[in-house]
Amino acid sequence: MTRSTVSVWRLGAGVVGLAFVLTAAGALVGGASDAPAAPAAAGAGAAVGQGTSAAVGPLQAHLKAQPKDAGAWASLGAAYVEEARISGDPALYPKAEQALARSLRLRPDGNAEALSGRAALAAARHDFPAALRDADGALAVNRYSERGLAVRIDALVELGRYDDALKAAGLADDRRPGIPVFTRFAYVRELRGEVAEAQRVLELARDSASTRGDIAYTATALGQLAWSQGRYDEALRHCTEALKADPGNLEAREYRARVTAAKGDLPSAVEEFEKIVEQSPLPGRLVALGELYEATGKTALARQQYAVVSTWTGLARAGGMNVDLDTALAAADHGDRAEALRAARAEWQRRRTVHTEDALAWALYRAGKPREALAHARQATATGYRNAVFLYHRGAIERAVGDTAAARGSLSRALALNPHFSPLGAREARRMLDGLEGS
Known about the structure:
By secondary structure, the chain is mainly α. Among the domains are: about 15-175, Serine Threonine Protein Phosphatase 5, Tetratricopeptide repeat, CATH 1.25.40; about 340-435, Serine Threonine Protein Phosphatase 5, Tetratricopeptide repeat (Alpha Horseshoe). Helices cover about 70% and strands about 0% of the residues. The chain contains 22 helices and no strands. Helix 3 runs antiparallel to helix 4, helix 6 (about 145-160) packs parallel to helix 8 and helix 8 (about 180-190) runs antiparallel to helix 9 (about 195-210). The longest helix has 20 residues, at about 300-320.
């Protein structure tokens, strides 16, 4: 993208903000574990600079010859962060931290590259206050830092400061319009329930993409959005387009597998997820595979997958990552419910987002505290975010407190929005709804 690219801020009626996922500057938002339908977020997460991990070897070789190159150390740190995103290996985060610290020792002043890289690392570790501080530091040095602008938006989103994120989006769009801006705008709009606007901006981003990586990234984002709204054929078309541009794109393969499961071919979905988790064993993917195993009667294999989540979270903690949200989401349904509640409460105290509200609501419900859960379930859906998992959770909680009319409405909306949002959750939502008929 060049400065001649049309700004999303000026694209037309109703466009006043920006987006969430990067494809050209090296930051990630810890997203994949945030929720089943979150962008790879919050994620479900996202990196600027497709193929950044391929730079690790050449950068290491360069630094052996030029060990005082502060810029190369900053680039190596960012590359490690991106490699961790792709592989799901949190052991790479200390390496990133060391490389970025080396860069800052060599050039302590005016080092926007290292500060923005450190911001991306903090976001990857789910330390969003630190990510915001370092992004602001990078922008104080270089107001046009693409990574700094992008991570600043991500941090504000992940802190639940959605209005501030829109303002940050406007600033970023004015300074560095392009695909990282377009995709972030789309996610902020999606969180506010403005799905049509989110889709429109993602389509503009895809149409303006010129590299294979950007084409794959934007097409995958469209596929993920279509999947979340239950438009499975459309999601499959977008994922196919993404994989044509980048056959190894794990996010596109993941959502293609989810569509495959939604269409009833669970064995093929299992086979694809098995291949995906071999390359990137992130918690959300491990849980998805475990639930597919359960849905196909392979309970022993399912338990193994859920156990791997605990192993991953242990490794992630050792890498300096905050994994309370990952723990809460996985353990509430497939682990220690007391631990799920502890983790959910801790994360909710740190940041108030729709994802942390939903996680706490569900952990409370699973711990037998539906009345306390209800306020959080309502808060999770208060922005208008159209998420079938959130609606299912709210409906189950409303049912537990005896509000059958509200429960019927929430469960019906969940299944109407995305009828196969989860092989186990959708089945349970139907069972609950059937039990409420006539009551």
